[in-house]
Amino acid sequence: MNIDDSIQESLPAVLTIAGSDSSGGAGIQADLKTFMAHSTYGLSVITAITAQNTQAVHSAIRVSPDMVAQQMSVVMSDIDVRAAKTGMLADAEVIEAVATSWQRALEIRGTAIPLVVDPVMVSTSGTRLLDAEALTTLREKLLPLATIVTPNLREAEALLNMAPHAIDSVNAMRQAAAQISSQFDVNVTIVKGGHLRPTDSGTVIDVVYERASDNFTQVSSARIDSANTHGTGCTLSAAIAANLAKDLSIADAVRNGIRYVNEAIQTSYKVGRGAGPVNHAYALCTMPIVRPTLYNPHPFTQYLKDNSSKLWQQYTQHSFVRQAAAGTLSTHVFVHYLKQDYAYLKHYARATALAAFKSDSLKEVSVLVDAMQACVRESKLHVEMCAQWGVSRADMEMEQESWSSVAYTRYIIDRGMAGDVLELLVAMYPCLLGYGEAARIAANDPKTLRQGNPFWPWINAYACADFQAAVAQGRQVIEDLVSRDILGPQRLKRLVTTFCETTSLEIKFWDSALDING
181 Cβ partners below 8 Å, 6+ apart? Predict the structure, then answer.
């Protein structure tokens, strides 16, 4: 049995360089759980071993700098590390060993690797984890190597030699983020606002500063009233690193990482008698989207169809298509449909252009440009078919949009304006996927009339190899987007709802055409 290359392909490898937390909520344990939840392969370099639980760090011993360097060397010489993060680094000698080993690995590799530095200084329970000498070495040796640094308020103050609690507002967070990037030559600084005094808005604000563009972004999340926040800093930096390993842009990697941590806190459960951990596995437990297999090569698509099964069957086996396949559809009905669909295609092309605008992948943009050109070709087919019944292009342009067309197209555009590229493409998906499937069902039905059937060219246009290839291409874009995302329960539910609603609107679009005959 041959296994498809895409199924055999390795997961992107992500390296954590951090201490061990015997309670499992922070450190390398949290990082490795986070890497797995993001469908990446976790590697680890252990810098320290702690005896801790949810209440306190009882003791800690460092791993020798030489052993830290050896771990980094042997792992990075063998495995294609796509991103890395640092956490607890014990002392100045360990930090120097990490910085030197990282530079050496990059020189051997010859290409840059994203590095997320979480400047861990104090544990959640209040134990100091970094002394003054180590802090100086961190500033001078490691921060200049970082792609992203993720201090909380107290860590940002320590990095900048500020008094405790000097950062007491969002504006102060912005100033600190810019100063850290400038002073330590860091591309992106994220100052986390979880320790900022709660406001009436009930939100947590994290400030993201990108030095290259001198741009600030404020990411707001719901403030969750929970004691289970042990390891949130480790988890966020690990999530960002995993997203970068999957080739997400920095902006998307950060935004998705923050959302992952927020939802992991929301779904956490009690462990121990102190500050419990977040639920790193919430996505694995609640998201039944597995990796592609021979028997389920498109798992997200299958999940959408499974969760809209009655609607999907009603749509792909609609009476409009069955009558067209049998040659019994009213010409009047079909011409009305063609004119309405001609108008719809303009809006669909606009939505495709919006998706291209929202995408940060040139590969996706290329596919979406092809889809826009396909809309033009499809509209030409509509014009040619209408012409045989004496309907001109001018007549089609003058046709007033039906309520079903207006409702459908505006819904798609609204989803595109309100959501991200994945939400928009899921809203557009029933049209692409459903037409391909409905036409394929009709084409494979021996009862379908081909000779002398004026509607057969329409069915064949969507059953033909070219359109089926376009379906496969569009499907792969969506499956790839999902593989790089973390679909928590709320987001997954929203995507399924969008898919079901647009499927329902597709059904109503054909219903409205049949209704003109009374």
Answer: 187, 188, 189, 209, 211
